[in-house]
Amino acid sequence: MPDRHSLGPDSEEVGPLVRPYIMTLGRQRSDTVQLDMISVVIAARADVDEMSLEPEQVSILELCRRPLSVAEVSAHLDVPVAVVKVLLSDLIGRGYVLARAPYTTQSPVSRDILQAVLDGIQRL
Amino acid sequence: MASNDSDRGAEPIPSAIKILIAGGFGAGKTTLVGSVSEISPLSTEELMTEASLDVDDTSGVEQKTTTTVALDFGRITINDDLVLYLFGTPGQQRFWFMWDELALGSLGAVVLADTRRLETCFPSVDFFERRSIPFIVAVNCFDGAHRYESDEVREALSISSGVPVVLCDARMRESGKEVLLTLVQHVAAAVSATV
């Protein structure tokens, strides 16, 4: 008969390697929502069915009571960005989180934005 | 009472924009981020598999997940609608695949130069030149290092006269602010020139 106690330490050992993929059920990239490292996310609802969520997703909802970038969520949870994106895209799909895409400068950035950035840095 | 469907209603979500801080290992990237960021620099990691999905199958995944790239970054709140993130680019050349995602949509870049090892910032200069990403060179003046004039640095890096070269002390907030202001002004000038 397998000794359950002997399994404990073993799974602890492999934990850091396998854990991210267990959290996302093996998925490495979300199919539906395109999230950037600096997409800003915020928790959207109070009526959340926490029992249906991964513990990390519950933590994400707590972190995102104020607007945070995907990179910040990743840093605070100590979970790689790629995994956070998948966890977040589930939450977005369920309406629990709202996301705003970053400004992209593939087209020239507007003068208003540049002026705002200059003013913001000046105020530091 | 009606159920509270959305607690966020009209509250605006800020949008974000980013500036890259590049340069060789030990040039002071994290120091610069730390001196201007409103938060202590955070570090996040990106899985290697993110960039190698097409060659993935389940075997060997465990090994690949152990390869991660640490990214240091800081944050500056510009206003209610805009947040600026500063990302230090990974210095090691084997992590260059990360740069493309980092560079995508960035406002511009600061290449931090250490005059004691100037050659370590050549690859960064090449990277931004090839992709036409606006950048400036900031010479981090380390204690005890020989002081070069900005023109000497410009010549050594063979960058065009249009690229600003500034001297800085990455440890000082005022100096870090000047570096960022120079970059944003440089970007603004480039935008004006194309309109």
Automatic annotation (TrEMBL), chain A:
PANTHER family: DUF742 DOMAIN-CONTAINING PROTEIN. This is Putative ArsR family transcriptional regulator.
UniProtKB/TrEMBL annotation, chain B:
GO terms for molecular function: GTP binding; hydrolase activity. Pfam families: ATP_bind_1 (PF03029). Keywords: GTP-binding, Hydrolase, Nucleotide-binding. InterPro entries: Gliding_Motility_GTPase, Gpn, P-loop_NTPase. CDD domains: Ras_like_GTPase (cd00882). It comes from the Bacteria. Belongs to the GPN-loop GTPase family. This is ATP-binding protein. It comes from Spinactinospora alkalitolerans. The lineage of its organism: Bacteria, Bacillati, Actinomycetota, Actinomycetes, Streptosporangiales.
